[in-house]
Amino acid sequence: MLLSQYVEVHHALRLMNEFSGGVGYLLKDRVSDLGAFATDVRRVAAGDVVIDPELVARLVGRRRQHDRLPRLSEREREVLGLMAQGLSNAALSSELHLSPKTVEGYVSSILTKLDLARDERENRRVVAVLRFLREQ
After folding, report:
1. Domains of the chain by range and CATH?
2. Of residues 57 and 66, which shows the higher confidence score?
3. 100-113 and 89-96 helices cross at what angle (nearest 10)?
4. What is the pTM of this model?
C-alpha cells in the first residue's frame, strides 16, 4: 500500500509493474475516513488492487499515441476505469444505474476484446485493470 500526498503517475505505474498480488495507491487525504481506509488495507491484503479515484481519473484522461486498447468503446473504458478503482460488479451496477446482467456483459466484452483467456493462475479482471493503467 502506497500513501502519497500527490498523484504521481510514474510511481503508480511502477507499483503496478513491480508488484504482483495486492497493491494499493491512495492519497493521504483519503485516509481521514478510517473505516474506508481499513477496508482498503484489508482488500490489498486479500490480493485486490485499490487505486485512488483521482489517480484513475488522471490516467483515464491521458491518451498515449500508441494506445493498445482501441477496441474498447467509451462505455467499456468507463466500466474499466471504475473497475480500476476496485468496484465490484454490484457496485458498478449501482454506480452506472445498470442491471447486473448488463454490467456482466460489459465486463465480459472487455475481457474478450483484450484477449484475456481464462487462466487458473491469474485473475483476468486484475490483468485487464493493470493493462488499462499501464496504457494510460
Report:
1. 2-135 (1.10.10.10)
2. 57
3. 110
4. 0.53
